[in-house]
Amino acid sequence: MSTMAAPPSDAPTPDDGPGGRNDWATTSIDRVVDVVERLRSATTQPAITAVRTVVHGVFVAFCLIAALVLGSIGIFRLLDVAIPGESWSAHLALGAALSALGAWFWSRRTPRS
Predict the structure, then answer these.
(1) Any idea of the CA torsion for 89, 91, 95, 96, to the nearest 10 degrees?
(2) Torsion sign across C-alpha atoms 94, 99, 101, 102
(3) Considering Cα of 92, then 97, then 98, then 104, what sign does the dihedral take?
(4) Which tens digit of pLDDT belongs to each residue from 10-53?
(5) By mean pLDDT, which of 40-44, 65-69, 105-109 is the weakest?
(6) 31, 38, 112 from 35: Cα distances, Å
(7) What is the rounded average pLDDT of the residues 75-91?
(8) Phi-psi region of 7 (alpha: psi -120 to 50; beta: other; left: phi over 0)
(9) Rounded distance, CA 2 to CA 75, Å?
(10) What is the pTM assigned to this prediction?
(11) Which residues, 6+ apart, have CB-to-CB distance to 13 below 8 Å?
């Protein structure tokens, strides 16, 4: 008579992981990590994008202001060299041009009701 012994209780089953036991701790940690990643992508990622946009916008504004100031100085110096006379003639030409530009913008405005 042959007696068949029951397999030991710690023998691997098809549902078990590579270690022979179902690793519920790893599964639980993976789920927690997934939830945290989804929460981060929903909350902090838009905030990071907004802050980056503001920082880049401020940097571009400073660069544009610096370019405007340096360009204005360059135009004045060019006029001072190109127009005969003292620097008053450059002031007069630049003032007239800027006044004409301002008058044009003023004529293009929409009146409030």
Answers:
(1) 10
(2) positive
(3) positive
(4) 555 555 555 545 688 889 999 999 999 998 888 888 899 999 99
(5) 40-44
(6) 6, 5, 52
(7) 90
(8) beta
(9) 108
(10) 0.55
(11) none
Question: What's the token pair of residue 28?
Answer: 């639980």
What is the three-state SS of 36-76? HHHHHHHHHHHHHHHHHHHHHHHHHHHHHHHHHHHHHHHHH
Site of tokens 């701790």:
25
For residue 63 the two structure tokens come to: 């660069």
Which pair of tokens denotes residue 36? 């945290």
